[in-house]
Amino acid sequence: MAVVAGVDFGTLGVRVSLVDSERGLLASSIAEYPLQRKREDPEYATQSHEEHMRALAAATPEVIRKAGVPADQILAIALDTKGAAFRSRGSRAYTNDAPAVSSDG
C-alpha cells in the first residue's frame, strides 16, 4: 500500500485527496478561501497566499482523519494550481512577483 496526497488549488478553494495505490481514492476534503475583488475595477481579482495556506492547513488533517490513514504513511504530495496564479520567467515560476519554484537549483 502506497498512499499519496494530491492537492489542487482552485479559484475558490483547495481540495486535498488521499489515494492508495491498491484501493484508489480514500478520501477528499475541501477548504474554501475568498477571491478578493475591487468595486472600482470589475476585472480585478486576486488571492492571498496566507488564505491558501490556511485552507491547506484546514483540509489536510481533515482528509487524513476521514481516510483513517496515519500521516506518516503518506509517501508523497503532488500540487496543482490554477495556471493564472503562476507565471514563468525563464526557468523560474513566480507568484505575486516572488520566486516560487526554480528548475535551475
What does it look like?
- It is a single chain.
- The chain is elongated, with a radius of gyration of 16 Å.
- It has one helix spanning 49-67, and strands at 3-9, 13-20, 24-32, 36-38, 41-46, 74-81, 87-89, 92-95, 98-102.
- It has a single domain, classed as 2-Layer Sandwich (Nucleotidyltransferase, domain 5).
- Mean pLDDT is 82; it is low at 84-105.
- The strands form three sheets. Strands 3-2-1-6 form a four-stranded mixed β-sheet. Strands 7-8-9 form a three-stranded antiparallel β-sheet, with no helix packed on it. Strands 4-5 form a two-stranded antiparallel sheet.
- The protein is built from one helix and nine strands.
- With 105 residues, the protein is an alpha+beta fold.
Task: Briefly note the structural class of the backbone.
Answer: alpha+beta
β-strand percent reads over 45%
Helix content: 10-25%
Largest sheet: 4 strands, mixed
Helix-strand topology string: EEEEEHEEEE
- Give the strand order of the largest sheet, numbering strands 1, 2, ... along the chain: 3-2-1-6
Q: Indicate the low-confidence ranges by residue numbers.
A: 84-105
Q: Predict the CATH topology.
A: Nucleotidyltransferase, domain 5
Q: What's the helix count?
A: 1
- Computed over alpha carbons, the radius of gyration is 16 Å
Distance between the termini: 32 Å
Please state the average pLDDT score: 82
CATH architecture: 2-Layer Sandwich
